[in-house]
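Before the break, one more example. Copy the sequence into your notebook; we will annotate it together after we see the structure.
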Amino acid sequence: MKMSEYLSSIIGLGAIVFGIAGIGYGIGCRKRMNDVCDKINAKVNEVSDNMEIDIPEAIVKVAVDNAVKKEAEYQVKNATTRVIFDIESSIENKVNKAIEERYSDISKSVGTRIVKELSNMDLSKLRKQVREDAAEKVADKLENELDDIVAKFTNNLNSISMIYEKMADKMSTKTDDNEIKIRLI
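Here is what the structure looks like once it is written out:
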């Protein structure tokens, strides 16, 4: 066994012994504290059993008044909430009943009025308006698409012009006997 392993084993064993001693000390302290608490509790109970405490009537009256006030507020809030709920339910029931009673009359009159309005409507004018609106929408859409096409065409034309210009520059810089110059106007 190496010296470091032997030393590690001794330190580990010492730590275990120290831990067990600490646990024993903790248990002993707890037992002593429990004994002290038991003695204190016994004395407090003994003193309180033999002692009479007079509470002034004014303090009792204030405490009772506060308790009554809190309970009264709670009961008022509770009763108010119940009354509001009952009133809302009653109103809702009355409205639903009135709607059910008048539904057939209302639906008939609304249906009749819709038919009347539709029969009075000028269909040719409506068709014309729909055609105009549709034509306007189509024209707007085509205009937007044509703008995009023109922009792409212009961009491509500029690219082609740059290519031809570079080719012309290259060709014009050559110093052959057969000099060729190309110019774009």
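Helices lie at 3-50, 57-120, 123-173. The chain has three helices and no strands. Try to locate both features in your own notes.
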